[in-house]
Amino acid sequence: MSLSIADLLNLPSLSNAEVVAGKEGLYKNVDSISVLEYPDPIALQDELFKNSKFYGSEIVITGFVYIKDDVDAQCKVIRRLHEMGEVGLILYYVGIFLPRIDKKVIELADELEFAIICMPKNRMDLRYSEVIYEVVEAILKEKKVDIHLVSEMLERISLLPVHQRSMDTVLRMLSDRMTCSLYLTDFDFVSMNMANWPRISNVKLTDIGKYYGNDYTRVPKEPVSVFINRNICLCSHSIKSEKTSCLYLIIVKEDGMLSEEICRQAAEVVQLFINIWSQGHGNIGTEELIKAILNDEPMKMRRLAEIFQIDVRAIQHLLIVKQDKLISDSDLIKKINQHLVEKTNTVIEKFFDVSLVGNYNDCFVIFLGKAKVKNSCEMITECLLYELEDFEEKIILVSNFALENTREVRSAYIMCSNYLQQARCIYPNKCSITLQELQFAKKCQDVINKGEDSIKETLHLLSPIEKSRKEQRKELYTTLEIFMLDSGLNVSKTAEKLFLHKNTIKYRIKKLNEKFNFHIDKMPESYDLYKAVALRRLLKNKSKLS
Q: Which domain of life is it from (predicted)?
């Protein structure tokens, strides 16, 4: 399908609308439309988005009625919509409910190439239904004309962020495109991945299995109408790969017909995805279980966990070993993998109930269950750091302890993927980064994302140093950074890192205390100062970010 946002602007209901931001994103495809209004913006952010699911190339209608005076909330919603795959926003009732479109919102949308289309301002007579009707009609018309599914889907998959590039996402995209349900199963009719359309569909794979006696030789390869608990159209295609056990894609459409050609193309998309991005999908291996956890594929995860007799519900800790480079060396990662497995397996089994190790993308991951003895987390961290010293290349260990479930494990991995580089800029000399440090790095990045006013407000706390003489300003900044960010507020460690006497550091800290009018090592007074120092270093080192 090739219906873009730019094409929608030719519809009569949008002919007088104005593209106010994200013009670089007008080329993006649209295959659905939805309405977003919610009375509690905090609940919206915490509940609606908490699963980080991919919702597809969808354009959203809203009036921002319930967050009309909260620009930060508007920006947060736009950022999350973009993360979930939404392509743009059609904004109603500007000048009536929403006073104006804030500059911060426009700048963020431009940065994300997220189109914001503003309907004519100060018009209360405009209705959502007119745009919805015409957009849906245009989408359906395009679907009937354009059946080049493979090239379209491969392009869309290639544009997904790595953590969204999973089989569940692919099936969801196909399901929305074809308006049907899809099930990817193994030879035993056990579902590994699925996507229902509509999402409240009552058709179950178990019903289909019972109807055909769980025998794939009886499931039609071409679409045929059958009756289970209602009239449905059904077909099945085998998915084969050199590195994958045989899988089956079952396609189900309720009260409608399926095109044989579209079904064939859907199977081709799934097979190409496995061959290009997910080799080994469906194989029985622990790395497939790791992928299922981190890709948020619950059905596949449960199936593999049962096979390996691993209680994934008991996973509480995630450790990530990553090369400190933007582009990782896959051979080096394999070497690290082998080395760590050989050196640490005995230690892991001794100190933790559950353990699962393997590669994922460009890193080595370790899942751990409940600790058997006190201080197990500290011991395994020390053990890993000791073993990583053998490598000339700098290797970073990211530790995420005390997680409650696999959802939190996945969230911790995404946090690492999104903010490790920022954390490395703030803590450049650390070989071990914690989840809390990643979360702090995110807060600093959020300040940058909000714009110049937010940055100035945060850095204003450092103004007493800015008023010092140039020579003194440099040494005070250096001492403050090393003391707060690199030495854990320890005078001796700060002196050691700066090659100075302890008394010199004590004198400088005394000067800093006087300038800020509070003790810089005392909480909670020092938190805002810590954040300002970290933000200053992040801005100074931002050229290192990709």
A: Bacteria
Q: Is the pLDDT of residue 286 over 80?
A: no
Extract the tokens encoding 400: 């995420």
Question: Quick check: helix, strand or coil at residue 152?
Answer: helix
Q: Give the whole-angstrom CA distance, residue 492 versus residue 483.
A: 9
Distance CA 372, CA 374 (A): 7
Rounded to the nearest 5 degrees, what angle is found at the Cα of 65, between the Cα atoms of 64 and 68?
Answer: 70
Distance from C-alpha of 546 to C-alpha of 544, rounded to nearest angstrom: 7
Beta bridge partners of 323: 395
pLDDT of amino acid 458 = 93
Is the pLDDT assigned to residue 501 strictly greater than 90? Answer: yes
Give the type of residue at 513.
N
Judged by average pLDDT, the poorest of 170-174, 183-187, 392-396 is 392-396
pLDDT tens-digit series, residues 369-428: 888 888 888 888 888 888 787 776 677 889 888 888 888 888 898 899 889 989 999 998
N residues, the chain: 546
What residues form DSSP beta bridges with 185? 191, 248
CA distance 493 to 119: 59
Which residue has 């299995």 as its token pair?
209
- pLDDT at residue 147 in the model: 66
Q: Which 8-state DSSP code applies to residue 542? A: G
Give the whole-angstrom CA distance, residue 375 versus residue 347: 13
Query: CB of 278 within 8 A of CB of 291?
Result: yes
Strands 32-35 and 58-62: parallel
228, 248 Cβ separation under 8 angstroms: no
- What does the radius of gyration of the chain's CA atoms come to, in whole angstroms? 27
Give how far Cα 539 sits from Cα of 299, 456, 528, Å. 43, 12, 16
Question: Closest Cα to residue 375, out of 405, 344, 403, 352?
Answer: 352
Chain-centroid distance, C-alpha 366: 19
Burial (CB count within 10 angstroms: exposed 0-12, middle 13-18, buried 19+), residue 373: exposed
| 266: confidence class by pLDDT, cuts 50, 70, 90 | very high
pLDDT at 331: 65
Q: What angle do CA 475, 480, 484 make, to 5 degrees?
A: 155
CB-based contact 297:305 (threshold 8 Å): no
Q: Tell me the residue type at 240.
A: K
Measured distance CA(82)–CA(354) in Å, rounded: 36
